[in-house]
Amino acid sequence: MAAKTALGNVVRKFANIRLGNAHGAISVQGKKSYGTTSGEQKEYAYEMACSNIRYGEGVTREVGLDCKNLGGKNICVMTDRNLVKLESVKVVCEALEDVGLKYSVYDKCRVEPSDKSFKDAIDFATKGNFDLFVAVGGGSVMDTCKAANLYSSNPKAEFLDYVNAPIGKGLPVTHKVKPLIAVTTTAGTGSETTGTAVFDLSDMKAKTGISNRELRPTLGIVDPLHLRTMPERVAAYSGIDVLCHAIESYTALPYYERVPRPTNPNLRPAYQGCNPISDIWSRHALQITNKYIKRATFDAGDMEARSIMHLASCYAGIGFGNAGCHMCHAMSYPISGLVKSYMPKDYDDDHPMVPHGLSVIITAPAVFEFMASACPERHLEAAQYLGVDITNKKKEDAGPILADRLRQIMQDLEMPDGLSSLGYTKDDIPNLVKGTMPQHRLTKLSPRPVTEEIVTGLLEKSMKNY
């Protein structure tokens, strides 16, 4: 009885701290829940989901045994055209050969994947009739491999069946997918921990995604040795994605404010809103990112910093993989999808692109300054985790305080200055807004409700940051 009472106190304390229960009463035990004005019931539960994770220098050499232990006999190794030449893929292939397993390498994963590149990978996977997948790369490769596994395991599915609503049908995954081992080679996306796969939808000229717990890798391999060859800008843009993952998940709408409550547990979304479990991972990711991101970016030989950023990416992945992100990511999708001619240093130069982490951070100062009034304590705490002394700081100043700290970090990491530096003008804002509003998986977790007018203002303010 005492333990039950203590747990109830913890959850009630979380609710009171988060928003002062300003949005209505909740019942943590499900006995009573006040719905919205439309009669929808609010959520009352949250779940913890994460891939198994293995960390250590050199653990990639165990992948062959892992595949054998999982019963794999015909393995699909997915990577991109640059990584296929590097040690990371070589080690995986040697590990498979050492245990006598048959494998095929698909090296056409696109950096910042599109629906076309997803479909090409799905076609390869379907024809190969593989029984296990190994992804070797960053978020683009891991997301491509998740999609290839999902659709090749159910060849009758149409492509939009599992794409997030309202862009796609957002159907639940009810079939069995194959085991997937994700060997991450960057410190940023956290995709080795999540059930999310993001891509550019060509017809829409914006990113969208597939989000379901069934997509989570069976095992995530976090081997810091792969970071030795990560270029400076890749380190910067993937590292800054960690920071946004952590702040967005920490400040997202709390789980008990999300509507509607699912009619069946298997309909509960992967992105649930902030909750006491996700908070732990998000806070820790912020603290260590603040300490190590600059070192990891500018000194490829600093294995301590790069190794710890690898862990920070994983921590933030667990945080946002359960809580979700909100407006920085929602607006990042059209920022990436509508790119004109921007060609980032240190990336593949065969097509214009805005690296994901850059597309996310570019609006972060404006977003968090606007959102802070919904939960000023959380925004102040985020600033504190990023090294700001918040002693005697006022709640009403939470937004500017966090925004200023983010601008400083961006300048320290030599981030481009605002949307204008990526080739956008104010004339592009209507299309950027149009690409943002359907991202319900993200916009519905915004701590403050957003309209087209609000998103327009955030984008206008993000044209220049410094």
Pick out its properties.
466 residues; two-stranded antiparallel sheet; 16 helices; disordered N terminus
Notes on the structure:
- By secondary structure, the protein is α/β, with parallel strands linked by helices.
- Helices cover 43% and strands 9% of the residues.
- It has helices spanning 2-19, 63-69, 87-98, 115-128, 139-152, 232-251, 276-298, 303-323, 327-337, 356-361, 364-371, 376-385, 398-412, 429-436, 440-443, 452-461, and strands at residues 52-55, 74-78, 102-106, 132-137, 180-184, 196-201, 206-211, 219-222.
- β2, α3 (87-98) and β3 form a beta-alpha-beta unit.
- The N and C termini lie far apart (55 Å).
- Residues 1-13 and 17-38 have low confidence and may be disordered.
Shape: globular
Indicate the mean pLDDT.
Answer: 92
Portion in strands: 5-15%
Q: Please give the largest β-sheet.
A: 6 strands, parallel
Topology:
Layout: H1 2-19, E1 52-55, H2 63-69, E2 74-78, H3 87-98, E3 102-106, H4 115-128, E4 132-137, H5 139-152, E5 180-184, E6 196-201, E7 206-211, E8 219-222, H6 232-251, H7 276-298, H8 303-323, H9 327-337, H10 356-361, H11 364-371, H12 376-385, H13 398-412, H14 429-436, H15 440-443, H16 452-461
Parallel strand pairs: 1-8, 2-3, 2-4, 4-5, 5-8
Antiparallel strand pairs: 6-7
